[in-house]
């Protein structure tokens, strides 16, 4: 899996079983947190950042089904895998799944089965999150397109484009273009929802090919806004014709690499 390792919370009151589950998941490359009961699990979900919960059905304080239900109410996008130490009938398994669990494993659980199920569930959620993010960005792009087309001046067009980019990427954004008179201007927006401003800005267009290119650069090279500390910037350049200067869109690189397990 690409990106940072996924974080899994293992919830089980049996120290032995918890140790086994934690060992298998850790060996498979996951970051693992632990909880002994339902109340501790619900508290950890609110405090720690995690990607998936492996949850015993029988806990000393709350039923695993109830804990799963509460997790899903608060965090609908957090996957839950039930594990049970007891042979369960169809009704139990059905209850687990209908109350929000994404998978149900019964003992004896094999390490390969646990890891494969964990990865499969994470893959599904990762795909769903990407689809939701894409849909949100497409809606933002549609709104921005309308605003750009309605802009009465070139400066207002750049402001609308920068405001739209900040809204789409949920981050600071800059849009740089050349006027028909040959002046290079930058529309800059410090954060989504804020008003953009326009400033003069000179870009060295040497070597930029016709078409669309994307590159990662140092924030100091695009010191238009306060970029997030510790990140680079991603610069998209669109050069439509050989005799025209490119249009640039600059956003923090982290916006392009949504965290995945």
Question: What brief labels describe this structure?
Answer:
6 helices; 261 residues; Rossmann fold; 38% helix; 11 strands; alpha/beta; six-stranded antiparallel β-sheet; elongated; five-stranded parallel β-sheet; single chain
Question: Topology, please?
Answer:
Blueprint: E1 7-11, H1 15-27, E2 31-35, H2 38-47, E3 52-56, H3 64-74, E4 80-84, H4 90-98, E5 103-106, H5 111-149, H6 154-169, E6 173-178, E7 184-189, E8 197-200, E9 211-217, E10 233-239, E11 247-252
Helix pairs in contact: 2-3, 5-6
CATH architecture identity of the largest domain: 3-Layer(aba) Sandwich
Low-confidence stretches: none
**Can you summarize the main beta sheet?**
6 strands, antiparallel
- Terminal residue distance: 6 Å
Q: What strand line-up does the widest sheet have?
A: 8-7-6-11-10-9
CATH superfamily of the largest domain: Response regulator
User: Helical residue percent?
Assistant: 25-40%
Query: How would you describe the shape?
Result: elongated
Tell me the strand percentage band.
Answer: 15-25%
Cα Rg: 24 Å
> What is the N-to-C succession of helices and strands?
EHEHEHEHEHHEEEEEE
Tell me the number of strands: 11
Average pLDDT over all residues? 83
SS field, number of helical segments: 6
Pairing-aware structural class of the strands and helices?
alpha/beta
**How many individual domains?**
2
Modified residues (4-aspartylphosphate): 56
Pfam families: Response_reg
InterPro entries: CheY-like_superfamily, Sig_transdc_resp-reg_receiver, WalR-like
Keywords: DNA-binding, Phosphoprotein, Transcription, Transcription regulation, Two-component regulatory system
């Amino acid at each position: 899996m690409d990106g940072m390792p996924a974080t899994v919370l293992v919830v089980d009151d049996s120290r032995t079983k918890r140790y086994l589950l934690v060992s298998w998941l850790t060996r498979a490359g996951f970051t693992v947190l632990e909880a002994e009961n339902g109340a501790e699990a619900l508290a950890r979900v609110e405090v720690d950042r995690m990607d998936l919960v492996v949850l015993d059905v029988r806990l000393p304080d709350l039923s695993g089904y109830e804990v799963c239900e509460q997790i899903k109410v608060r965090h609908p996008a957090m996957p839950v895998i039930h594990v049970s130490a007891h042979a369960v009938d169809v009704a139990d398994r059905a209850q687990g799944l209908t109350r929000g669990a994404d998978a149900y494993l019964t003992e004896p659980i094999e390490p390969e089965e646990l890891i494969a199920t964990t990865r499969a569930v994470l893959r599904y959620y990762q795909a769903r999150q990407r689809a939701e993010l894409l849909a949100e960005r497409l809606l933002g792009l549609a709104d921005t397109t309308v605003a750009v087309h309605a802009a009465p001046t070139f400066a207002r067009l750049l402001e609308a484009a920068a405001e739209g980019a900040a809204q789409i990427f949920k981050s600071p954004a800059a849009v740089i273009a050349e006027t028909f008179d040959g002046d290079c201007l930058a529309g800059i927006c410090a954060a989504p929802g804020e008003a953009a401003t326009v400033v003069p800005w000179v870009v060295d267009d040497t070597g930029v090919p016709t078409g669309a290119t994307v590159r990662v650069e140092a924030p100091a090279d695009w010191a238009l806004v306060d970029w997030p500390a510790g990140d680079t910037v991603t610069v998209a350049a669109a050069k439509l014709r050989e005799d025209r200067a490119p249009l640039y869109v600059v956003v923090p690189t982290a916006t392009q690499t949504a965290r995945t397990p």
